[in-house]
């Protein structure tokens, strides 16, 4: 029952992140790099108050998207998507996430997709259940550390 409720809350949060969320969150300072972090407690507080406002704007190519569920129990490779932007909604667990900086050891794995070993000089963001983070296309990102089981939704927008 708890997992079903978490999944429903995840889908609700993702739907709101796509275009609207509480005005209080929209008033937070946006990062000049285009990477935006939204604290889970503030998102839930805003949802409880039913205030809806624009959270972020940006181009996403033709606007097609893919929704996925992901599970991690260890760090991953650095990812860099030339066309896709990512929106993550964290369901459970904690992780250290790095964005931007210089990606090392990058190799092409598919058209417009690269993977690598690590990032130096990036922005470090702890992630926890309820958080949302957006990663624009062209920004390297990496789960540097994962504690236990880490579950999250991914919306890839092109």
Characterize the structure shown.
A hairpin with a 2-residue loop joins strand 8 and strand 9 (113-116). This protein is of the alpha+beta class. It has a single domain (2-157), classed as Jelly Rolls (Sandwich), CATH 2.60.120. Strands 2, 4, 6, 11, 12 and 13 form a 6-stranded antiparallel sheet that branches. It has a 3-stranded antiparallel sheet with strand order 5-9-8, with no helix packed on it. The protein is globular and about 45 Å long. 19% of the residues lie in helices and 47% in strands. It has 3 helices and 13 strands.
Quick summary of this structure?
This protein has helices at residues 2-17, 23-26, 40-49; strands spanning 20-21, 36-38, 53-54, 65-72, 78-81, 85-99, 102-104, 107-110, 113-116, 118-120, 123-128, 132-135, 141-157. The protein has 158 residues and is an alpha+beta fold. It has a single domain, classed as Jelly Rolls, CATH 2.60.120.10.
CATH class: Mainly Beta
Cα Rg: 15 Å
Overall mean pLDDT:
78
Total domain count = 1
Structural class: alpha+beta
CATH architecture: Sandwich
Which percent bin holds the helix content?
10-25%
> So, the CATH homologous superfamily?
Jelly Rolls
Biggest sheet architecture: 6 strands, antiparallel
Number of continuous helical runs: 3
How are the elements arranged and paired?
Layout: H1 2-17, E1 20-21, H2 23-26, E2 36-38, H3 40-49, E3 53-54, E4 65-72, E5 78-81, E6 85-99, E7 102-104, E8 107-110, E9 113-116, E10 118-120, E11 123-128, E12 132-135, E13 141-157
Antiparallel strand pairs: 1-3, 2-12, 4-13, 5-9, 6-11, 6-12, 6-13, 7-10, 8-9
């Amino acid at each position: 029952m708890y997992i079903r409720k978490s999944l429903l809350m995840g889908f609700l949060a993702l739907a709101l992140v796509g275009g609207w969320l509480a005005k209080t969150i929209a008033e937070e300072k946006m990062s000049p790099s285009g990477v935006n972090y939204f604290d889970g407690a503030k998102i839930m507080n805003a949802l409880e108050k039913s205030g809806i406002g624009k959270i972020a704007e940006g181009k996403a190519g033709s606007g097609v998207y893919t929704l996925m569920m992901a599970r991690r129990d260890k760090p991953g490779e650095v990812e860099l998507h030339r066309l896709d932007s990512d929106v993550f909604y964290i369901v459970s667990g904690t992780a250290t996430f790095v964005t931007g900086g210089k990606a090392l050891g990058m190799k092409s794995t598919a058209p417009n997709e690269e993977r690598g070993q690590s990032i130096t000089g990036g922005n470090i963001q702890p992630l926890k259940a309820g958080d949302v983070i957006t990663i624009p296309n062209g920004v390297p990102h990496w789960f540097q550390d994962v504690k236990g089981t880490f579950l999250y939704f991914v919306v890839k927008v092109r």
